[in-house]
Backbone:
């Protein structure tokens, strides 16, 4: 049996090394070409999918009951759907635009295969006014539509915007408490000094001051049947800020009359 000499093996490996390098370079080149072709194909596919002429939006479904939200506002907020087509439209952007409309409480947008879009919109339901140009929904969220004046019959709440939740809580508490005497709050205000003022549905003004407003309201409710319900003349207001009584301002001319508690 013949045995290869070490020098012969080294020479043969040296002769094969260039061919291996060329094969490696050729393989890498082919891989690069395949990658470029694949990326080009993906890009062309994405470009085709974004083509509004190839994939138009033909149907827009709008779900929701609207009393104040105008269809013109919805059309303006969703114009991109028709311009960019089924795949090209950015659903999140359209949803954000709808949510920014003053009368929109919640909005959801989704694609409906093959050429439709579905809009689910929940309209705001105002339960009270806030200041001069705002409305509050049942969650206490503030929104500011253009037609606030149409809701003059709603209760009016006012106060520092940072204390809005506190004002809303007091309104709910006072409304429930005043049901005992058949009245409800038409307005509640927390002024800059953090003093409370309540106006009832019969026009009576109640001044509760800065402290113990809940206790003072409870005292007013307790004295209402005896002092005000059967009074021969209506009262303009009552001041509950006294430690041992209250003062009544009657609608007829005269000075406030104080009652000891």
Residues:
């Amino acid at each position: 049996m013949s045995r290869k000499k070490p020098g012969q093996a080294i020479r043969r490996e040296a002769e094969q090394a260039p061919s291996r390098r060329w094969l490696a370079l050729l393989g890498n080149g082919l891989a690069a070409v395949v990658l470029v072709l694949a990326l080009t194909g993906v890009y062309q596919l994405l470009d085709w999918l974004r083509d509004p002429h190839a994939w138009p939006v033909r149907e827009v479904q709008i779900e929701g009951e609207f009393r104040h939200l105008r269809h013109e506002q919805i059309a303006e907020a969703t114009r991109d759907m028709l311009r960019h087509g089924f795949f090209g439209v950015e659903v999140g952007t359209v949803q954000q635009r709808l949510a920014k409309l003053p009368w929109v409480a919640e909005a959801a947008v989704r694609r409906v295969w093959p050429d439709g879009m579905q809009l689910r919109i929940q309209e705001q339901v105002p339960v009270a006014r806030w200041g001069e140009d705002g409305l509050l929904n049942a969650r206490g969220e503030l929104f500011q539509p253009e037609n606030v004046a149409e809701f003059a019959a709603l209760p009016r709440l006012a106060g520092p915007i940072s204390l809005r939740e506190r004002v809303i809580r007091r309104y709910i508490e006072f409304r429930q408490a005043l049901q005992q005497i058949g009245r409800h709050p038409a307005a509640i205000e927390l002024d800059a000094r953090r003093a409370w003022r309540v106006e009832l549905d019969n026009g009576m003004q109640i001044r509760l001051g800065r402290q113990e407003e809940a206790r003072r309201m409870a005292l007013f409710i307790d004295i209402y049947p005896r002092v005000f319900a059967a009074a021969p003349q209506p009262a303009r207001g009552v001041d509950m800020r006294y430690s041992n009584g209250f003062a009544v301002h009657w609608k007829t001319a005269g000075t406030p009359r104080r009652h000891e508690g």
